[in-house]
Design a protein that fits this description.
This protein has 379 residues and is α/β, with parallel strands linked by helices. It folds into 2 domains: 10-39 and 280-377, Aspartate Aminotransferase, domain 1, CATH 3.90.1150.10; 44-278, Type I PLP-dependent aspartate aminotransferase-like (Major domain) (Aspartate Aminotransferase, domain 2), CATH 3.40.640. It has helices at residues 10-16, 19-22, 41-53, 61-76, 93-104, 148-154, 176-189, 216-221, 247-253, 257-261, 266-278, 280-301, 331-338, 365-378; strands at 28-29, 87-90, 111-115, 132-136, 138-139, 144-145, 160-164, 192-196, 222-226, 240-244, 308-309, 317-321, 341-342, 344-345, 356-360. This is cysteine-S-conjugate beta-lyase.
């Protein structure tokens, strides 16, 4: 089947009024990580049918079990299938991070985050009175890599390492060798890992390798969260999955499992099962479309004076370095004010990234081209 990802115009998106398009109503919105490309027809038909049936009650346990088995099957295609009995439904991936901090780290232990990072990773630990140790990554103008020596220096007994793979905002899919090196460091330091795999359903030309099921060592110290929200454009349905790879972790949380899962949306959890089981074709085609958008961006950035970016292997996000472009102390603000394109400032992604911008490319091609034209005009 061929899907139409170009149907929405700028006027339509502005009129629909999502946060992405209403916070800066005079701008092209490219700052919130959601798609403007519609949803899979299988999910659309399910949601319409559910509303027509009026079946919007609480999720029965037997449905939860089926949904978790479906999610385990889906993520198991990339590596070892996790045990659905050691999984929970949660409203969103960040709920999993909060749980990992509160229940699986030593009291007062820091949270170590490689930067640039997804913005809430740098703020959520503060909710628990925890220090965030930022570990700047290495960028040579074309490629991002983790600073393993600095990560080892930052980790301590009982601390938590936040692993985002695929990596928001730089678009890396980490290699097996990189993941094994992380594992060795974490184990040596007596730390834990929270693995955010929310973008594992948006692979451009990299490969997602699950960290949590990689080896017996990673299973022992990892909690993984993922969701259908990015790959099928359903973040507003509020459903994600949490994997306890260590049976002892699953047992420790079992008395609270129902309370942890209960805020998950009934329709969101069921829609996730539809995504994983029935809407694979839509996801594959949308990834092809996103790859073309990202290739267009990469081609344009290569011609812009003073700008550079790494090739995106996974996610629909680019992190663009404007440090030599003469756009002031905060290029995102300059671009928003002068080009009327709303991006995320690199300032929010970690210390030292004020000259970078985070750009979301999951929007119709004509709007991407219009945004690039506006940005190019001020360079």
């Amino acid at each position: 089947m061929t899907y139409s990802f170009d149907s929405k115009t700028l006027d339509v998106l502005l009129s629909e009024g999502s946060r992405k398009w209403s916070e800066y109503p005079d701008c092209i919105g490219m700052w919130v990580a959601e798609m403007d490309l519609g949803i899979a027809p299988e999910i659309r038909d399910y949601l319409i049918g559910e509303a027509q049936r009026g079946t919007l009650g609480y999720l029965p346990p037997q449905d939860s079990a089926k949904i978790l088995a479906s999610a385990a099957n889906w993520i198991g295609q990339f590596g070892e299938r996790p045990d659905p009995e050691q999984m929970l439904l949660i409203p969103e991936v960040l709920s999993g991070l909060r749980l990992a901090i509160s229940d699986f780290t030593a009291p007062g232990a820091p949270v170590v985050v490689p930067t640039p990072a997804y913005m809430p990773f740098l703020t959520i630990p503060g909710e628990f009175g925890r220090e965030v140790i930022q570990v700047p990554s290495l960028f040579d103008g074309a490629h991002w890599s983790l600073d393993f020596d600095a990560i080892e220096a930052a980790l301590s007994e009982g601390s938590l390492f936040v692993l985002c793979n695929p990596w928001n905002p730089v678009g890396r899919t980490l290699t097996r060798e990189e993941l094994l090196r992380i594992s060795e460091i974490v184990e040596r330091k007596g730390a834990r890992v929270f693995e955010d795999a929310i973008h594992s359903s948006i692979i451009i030309d990299g490969a997602y390798i699950p960290y949590g099921t990689l080896t017996p060592t990673t299973k022992a110290h990892t909690i993984t969260a993922f969701a259908a929200s990015k790959g099928w454009n359903i973040p507003g349905l509020k459903a994600a999955q949490l994997i306890f790879h260590n049976p002892d972790d699953a047992a420790a949380i079992a008395p609270r499992a129902s309370a942890i899962s209960s805020p998950t949306s009934t329709v969101g959890a069921r829609a996730a099962r539809i995504a994983f089981e029935e809407a694979g074709d839509w996801n594959r085609e949308v990834c092809t479309y996103l790859a073309e958008n990202l290739a267009l961006l990469e081609e344009r950035v290569a011609k812009w004076p003073g700008a550079r970016m790494a090739h995106v292997e996974g996610t629909y996000i680019a992190f663009i370095d404007f440090s030599q472009a003469g756009l002031g102390d905060d290029p995102a603000q300059t671009i928003r004010e002068r080009a009327k394109v709303a991006l995320t400032s690199g300032i929010a992604c970690g210390a030292g990234y004020g000259q970078f911008t985070r750009m979301i490319l999951a929007t119709p091609r004509a709007i991407v081209e219009e945004a690039l034209d506006r940005m190019e005009a001020i360079l």
